[in-house]
Amino acid sequence: MSTEDGASEPTFVEEGREFKRDTNYIPTRITEDGRDGYPVEPGRYRLIVARACPWANRAIIVRRLLGLEDVLSMGICGPVHDKRSWTFDLDPGGVDPVLKIPRLQDAYFARDPEYPRGITVPAMVEIATGKVVTNDYPQITLDFSTQWKKYHREGAPDLYPEPLRNEIDEVAEYVFRDVNNGVYRCGFAGSQQAYDEAYDTLFARLDWLTERLARQRFLVGDTITEADVRLFTTLARFDPVYHGHFKCNRSKLSEMPVLWDYARDLFQTPGFGDTIDFTQIKAHYYIVHSEINPSGIVPKGPELTHWLEPHGREQLGGRPFGDGTPPHPPIRSEVVPAEHWATR
């Protein structure tokens, strides 16, 4: 069974069954002490992402907030992959300019010629060998915060503060199970019962999040943490994709006032909204998921300028970056065209 991130089989929906995500990722870690044979080193690795993918979007945001651009380069795949792999079709000649490969699959097979699972993003690739080191996306962003600390920019926020880690982990688990993955359990459900159960669980969790965020500006503590990053990437895709395409249609995000204000607060925070490419997001879901959308037609809406309207969350207090500062603007090669995130 494949996932939305691309695998060797094109099937997303299994008739009569609920959607089960394969969470067996490559567990190798890049750490300060190099315990797995891969020490943190500037220029040694390349982060491969796709702007369409919510899991990869997390890594893009955290890398930017922490200011790791100078020590960790980033390759960006196009939004529409085939049954084999994500591809570098956005680059000249369709080849990643650093790894010199046309498909992310090549880096996975460089590590294991018989690699049996999905070719997923984000992936950390060792440049010299061309081998994927890890695609364990939940751990990648935590390691950016804890293992790459020596290379954080001055003023980088603490996204995983030690006193709050247990609470961050607990909230992040709820968010993953019921929201991040919950929307896929709705969209890829193979039976009415599986869909109904996933739908009810999703909106029960969104109601729980609404109650929590009605009292506080951010999910844990009074600053942005890893938990907020993980929720944001799903909320950003909710109205353009999940509401209609995945049948998560009790309410649009824009009809849930607390979550809508919260999402706009983050969207308007440097490092969040300016990493979002709604054009690529919609192209990915509506074209790749041909079982759900056989016509391949990509909807024109929704209107995007509403993301820039005032949100009023400042009245709840909180300091987005704590004692730190906002990140600098994105480097030129990583700028998302304004028409892809701020206008129709």
TrEMBL record:
Matches recorded under Gene3D superfamilies: 1.20.1050.10, Glutaredoxin (3.40.30.10)
Annotated site (Lowers pKa of active site Cys): 242, 285
SUPFAM superfamilies named among the record's database cross-references: GST C-terminal domain-like (SSF47616), Thioredoxin-like (SSF52833)
An example molecular function term from Gene Ontology annotations: glutathione transferase activity
Tree of life domain: Bacteria
Gene Ontology terms: cellular component: cytoplasm
Region (Disordered): 312-344
Binding site for glutathione: 86
Domain named GST C-terminal: residues: 161-285
Active site: 53, 184
PROSITE patterns according to UniProt: GST_CTER (PS50405)
UniProt-listed InterPro entries: Glutathione-S-Trfase_C-like (IPR010987), Glutathione-S-Trfase_C_sf (IPR036282), Glutathione_S-Trfase (IPR040079), GST_Omega-like_C (IPR047047), GST_Omega/GSH (IPR016639), Thioredoxin-like_sf (IPR036249)
Name assigned to this protein: GST C-terminal domain-containing protein
UniProt source species: Rhodococcus erythropolis (strain PR4 / NBRC 100887)
